[in-house]
Task: structure prediction
Amino acid sequence: MNMSRYGSTLVLTAAAIWCLFSADVVQASPAGTGETSVLAEYEAYYDRLMSIENRDGIADGGFLVVEDQIFALEPDDEDSLLMVPAFDGRYNRLALFIVDRDGQILYRTEQLETNYCVRGRMRQPVQSIAAVSFQDLNRDGRTDIVLITSCVNESGAYAGETYKVGDVLFQNQTGNSFYRDYRISEKINRFGMNKSAESITAFVRDGDSTEFLYTASTLQELQRNRFHVISEQCYLRTFGKLGKLQVTPGTYRIADYDIFMIYLVSEQGDIVSVLQPMGEYDNLYALKGVTCRDIDGDGLKDIVVLARYSYEGEGGELLIESDYRIYYQRTGGFVPDTEIRDTYRCSDEDTMEILVERARVYWGWQTTND
Result:
């Protein structure tokens, strides 16, 4: 093995193994046999990955090549290197291979954010590649890779729900290898900038960020960072022990996308609670309404949000869908509904009144006096 070619990969593998046992790990037995088993699985898997010598051997190594996502790093160069993605058939883990036109593998890596969705476990959620983009993100004259995968958990509270995972691989100045900055990848995914390659580019290359949407403590701080308040949908309401709060919906534009958030703000301008009704959609297309009504019959005002959102379909087409969110008031704040949306998905014809009525029927009550 040419250590100069694979040296950086081998060093990073130690960190990858550590990631398997960091936060959110699957608890091992008292004797540590669980950790030993996962480590042995990873080492066998990694040896299998590293034993692949050329493009034709990827399938023989137990990986399924994603043929329609093979791209040239330099599209205008007929001798350009190719990026060949492949998923491991046993563990759903994604590997990227950089190969030349003769099929020789010059670089490979499986140390990707999408391979650590479930830490402490080898098998990862079912995945597909949602987007790939090649551009110079750190302005060093080298082509970098933007990668977004779509993932679906097979079990657990959010089983069957699709979410995206974004990543960036920076090309080294020498050779044909790449490296990741885990801090960048972590922020891309923690703060919802993983919906599109354009959003990732705006963050990494241009310095735009949605981080303040999640960390701001005052309305003034939000507006200072170009958060646009949708004033016609602002309401001042009394929420029981939470007191009088202003329901403040608004958007922040990054790339060509409007990120939709709702803040509950005290009379002093402090943010008391943050709601994220947009979910996994890419963009707020139109806000149809926000209302504060008692939905579950406990005498406390809940919040219902109805909007139209846009997102990219599997074929790259623009899709628009109406959707809603319900947030129930509790003693310490608001909790999102996890039941009604599984029972009733709204249509473009639904109004706020229809949604409120259906939600109250679900909880077994109704009123005409609010």
In short: The longest strand covers residues 318-330.
